[in-house]
Amino acid sequence: MTMMGETWSHIGSLIATIMFLWAMFDKYFPDHLRSTILSYSMKLASFVYPYINITFNEFIGDSDKYMHLKRSDAYAAIETYLSGKSSGEARNLKATVVKDSSQPVQLSMDENEGVTDEFKGVKLSWTLKKNTTRTQSFSVFPKIDEKKYYKLTFHKSYRDLVCGTYINHVMQKGKEITVSNRQRKLYTNNPSQNWEGYKARKWSHVTFEHLATFDTLAMESKKKLGIVNDLEKFRKGKEYYTKIGKAWKRGYLLYGPPGTGKSSMIAAMANHLEYDIYDLELTTVKDNTELRRLLIETTGKSIIVIEDIDCSLDLTGQRKKDKKKAKDEEAKDPISKMTKGEEDSNTKVTLSGLLNFIDGLWSAIGGGRIIVFTTNHVEKLDAALIRRGRMDKHIELSYCGFEAFKVLAKNYLDVDSHPLFVTIGHLLEETNITPADVAENLMPKSLNEDAEACLKKLIEAIKTAKEEATKKVEEEARLKAEKEENEKQEDVKVDSSLAKVKENCVGVLVKEDEALAKEVKDNDATA
Ligand SMILES: Nc1ncnc2c1ncn2[C@@H]1O[C@H](COP(=O)(O)OP(=O)(O)OP(=O)(O)O)[C@@H](O)[C@H]1O
Ligand SMILES: [Mg+2]
């Protein structure tokens, strides 16, 4: 279609141009005849060449001002969309190195090559063209100006389909391919003393390569499905959030004992949504201003994580502690404290600072953002920090149940069932053991260790954990009883000393009374 189309295009254009010029410049043509000829020349051109061409330039903007030229998003999307088709069809290909992509070398068709595409049964043709013009510049050598563009050619009867649906489809698919090829990043914040200077950055990043997914995550399937659905709703909810006038963000609080999968779940979320992760280490953030500067630099489609929020900062006690410290210091040096006290509250990341940024305007910039806090001690957190609306979903990651064990057995040993599963099921009902410990025991330590050996190893580990837990409970009960006994004895001691004191007091009082009575008697006698 391309070669033939090109030929007919030229013939059609030539005939139409001749007729057009003839009608335009022949002064003997009356006006009405001239317009009839013009209309017929267009129809003839369209009959000879019934195709429509659309061009997409590589650069958009003011071509006289190179600084103002911008690579067109549409061109980039078309290039990505066609890259798969080009490598199969085109004979001359061009290889480009793409940074931060899972496919670092992208193949696209070279200039003057063409590929065909099919959409809803309609055939379309794409060609890559280049216009080269020479412009005189101040330099001795003329400047060569190259303009590349994609040309889309299709039959005129599909104008509505192509303009209405196909072009959008190409843009969307192109962007989707870019996103799926893009390697995701794990960012960590740099201490602020490294923010200034050449190439200084607030965030450093590495390629995010955690392999955890919701399939490998061990937890009850119903709970897992609930979380996946919630994430899906969020991902597709851009319009909904816009409609209700809320920033497109969602907060998750993950809580539970160490080794129950909080960090693994964050990785699974990022892999599911194909989002980047910003791992925010709050202890290295000096104050609220720094926190704001860091958050403003985060991009959309990302998960901002603050792990162990209760340890990162004493968020609840911070203000109380500051006040106490301020009071003590003020007592020692009242004058200097007048200013220093105020300074203190500004030189820390405070709970209210953190809340402001979670709710703040920055979160509305760009694409969707997820904020995740993790903690081992949910009871320690300030209610304001985790109230619904800030942390929309609270997810408890808990000890390993039978369902979670089955996921781990499948992951680590590739077994769906085994006679030992029954024993393990009973033991797990009675024992608190983390998925991390179960996983550790299920992992074969040598080539000779088969599934059964690993399951037996796990049974032993659960039994040991059970015994240790029983011992711990007994020890705790013993300590409690001991403490109570000590307290009782203390009480008895206190009571007896109180009684002695009372006795002494009574003795003293009686003596005083007797002395007083004697004095009165003596006085009376003298009188
Ligand atoms: N629910 C789980 N599903 C699958 N693997 C798990 C799960 N929980 C723990 N693991 C395994 O244990 C390891 C430690 O888990 P993870 O780091 O996610 O725990 P955590 O809850 O974040 O612990 P901490 O509170 O100490 O940060 C993981 O690398 C993973 O192999
Ligand atoms: Mg963790």
UniProtKB/TrEMBL annotation:
Q: Which GO terms describe its biological process?
A: response to stress
Which cofactors? Answer: Mg(2+)
Chain segments annotated as transmembrane: 7-25
**Is Nucleus tagged as a keyword?**
no
InterPro entries recorded:
AAA+_ATPase, AAA_N_dom, At3g28540-like_C, ATPase_AAA_core, ATPase_AAA_CS, Mitochondrial_chaperone_BCS1, P-loop_NTPase
Domain of life of the source:
Eukaryota
- Does the entry feature the keyword Transmembrane, yes or no? yes
The segment annotated Disordered runs over 322-342
Locate the compositionally biased regions of type Basic and acidic residues.
325-342
**Pfam families found in the cross-reference section:** AAA, AAA_assoc, AAA_lid_At3g28540
Q: Which GO terms describe its molecular function?
A: ATP binding; ATP hydrolysis activity
Question: Which keywords does this Swiss-Prot/TrEMBL entry list?
Answer: ATP-binding, Coiled coil, Hydrolase, Magnesium, Membrane, Nucleotide-binding, Transmembrane, Transmembrane helix
SUPFAM superfamilies per the UniProt record, alphabetical: P-loop containing nucleoside triphosphate hydrolases
Q: Where is the AAA+ ATPase domain?
A: 248-401
The UniProt catalytic activity note for this protein reads:
ATP + H2O = ADP + phosphate + H(+)
Q: Which residues form a coiled coil?
A: 448-492
Similarity comment: family membership: Belongs to the AAA ATPase family. BCS1 subfamily.
Q: What is this protein called?
A: Aaa-atpase asd
Provenance organism: Quercus suber
| Lineage, broadest ranks | Eukaryota, Viridiplantae, Streptophyta, Embryophyta, Tracheophyta
